[in-house]
Structure formats: C-alpha cells, structure tokens
Design goal:
Elements lengths: L3 H8 L7 H6 L4 E5 L11 E10 H5 L10 H8 L2 H8 L1 E6 L4 E7 L20 E4 L3 E8 L5 E7 L13 H11 L7 E5 L1
Antiparallel strand pairs: 1-2, 1-5, 2-3, 3-4, 6-7, 6-8
C-alpha cells in the first residue's frame, strides 16, 4: 500500500488514529504510517490493533539491568510530575503486545479524544483498515433469532444501515419480517 492511498482520508481528516477509534479497532488489521524523516520515506506498515496501555504500565514488564523493570528504574530518579507524564502517555500495542512506538498524550489539553502520534507528539499516525468489509449480527430482541451480514466498512459517524445493499435490506426483512426488522440489536463482529 502506498501513502497516496492515505491522501484522500488525510484531506478529509478521517485517517487520524485516535484513542477511541483504536479501541473500536482492537483485533482488526490496519495499515498505518506517519510523515517521517527523510530516511523513513513515509513507509506504510501493517499491524493488528492490540491493547492500549500506559507507558508506565508497559515498561513495568520490560527488563532493566539492576532493576526489576524499566518502570522501577524510572521511579528511582524521576520526579512525581515526570512519572505522571509516563502514566498519562498511552501506547498502542499490536496483538502480540509489541510496542510500535505509537503513543497518545492524554493530558496534552489539545483534545478530549487524544490522537496517536509517533515519538514526536506533533506527527500524527494515520491509518486505513485493511479489510474492506465488516460483519454485523442483527438479533431480534424478542425471539432471539439472528442473522449475520457482511457490509462495507464504515466510520462511527455513519449509520451501519447506509452501508447495506438493497438485496441485504430485503434479506433482513424476509428474515425478521418488515416490522420486526426495526426491533433488532446490532453487534459488530
């Protein structure tokens, strides 16, 4: 995948990876990149989204010679303010718990929904979902009957029903009945 494929989303401000979006994407595979230095050449990488943890929590599991962990080393010399900054910096790990140095500064004051950046807080991380479709399960609240559909991916700003085809709408109505289709729970799988 080339960085040019990100250009349209970046222009529409839909490609920035926020903490909230990353939470919704856990377990999903994405392409990601950030504008880098000359040697980086804006390389597009791929990862399956894993956990979001504080920097202090992550480094409490990382070895450090002479200390129980890197976090314990930090605690030996950092001020309370510096430790608080480590606690308020979130890391986005991949599915294997690997740190790709994607971080969000929670108390930066820039946004209620912090954005992920690379190691430089002013360089945003952009993403595109790898898979072009999402599975949803519709369940009738009363009968418990359910049906699974595969729909185009959508952003949280869009309503899932706008992404289904006329044939899928008919399938829903045939399965639940025209009126019962309005009494369903929707779960993203």
């Amino acid at each position: 995948m080339m960085t040019s494929e990100f250009a349209k989303k970046i222009e529409n401000k839909k490609a920035v990876l926020t903490v909230e979006k990353a939470k919704c994407l856990k377990g999903k595979t994405v392409y990601w990149f950030y504008y880098g230095y000359t040697g980086n050449q804006n390389k597009v990488l791929q990862m399956t989204i894993g956990d979001i943890v504080s920097e202090l929590e992550y480094y409490s599991t990382q070895p450090c010679e002479g200390y129980a962990s890197r976090a314990e080393y930090w605690k030996s010399y950092m001020t309370e303010e510096q430790l608080k900054e480590k606690e308020n910096t979130l890391l986005l790990l991949d599915e294997n718990g690997k740190n790709n140095f994607i971080r969000a500064h929670v108390n930066s004051g820039l946004s209620n929904n912090p954005e992920f950046t690379c190691s430089d807080a002013d360089r945003e991380v952009y993403y595109v979902r790898k898979n072009k479709r999402t599975k949803i399960e519709l369940t009738d609240k009363y009968s418990g009957r359910s049906i699974i559909l595969s729909i185009n991916n959508y952003d949280e700003e869009e309503y899932w029903y706008n992404q289904i085809s006329d044939g899928q709408r008919r399938k829903i109505e045939d399965f639940f009945g025209k009126m019962a289709a309005y009494y369903t729970n929707v779960e993203i799988l």
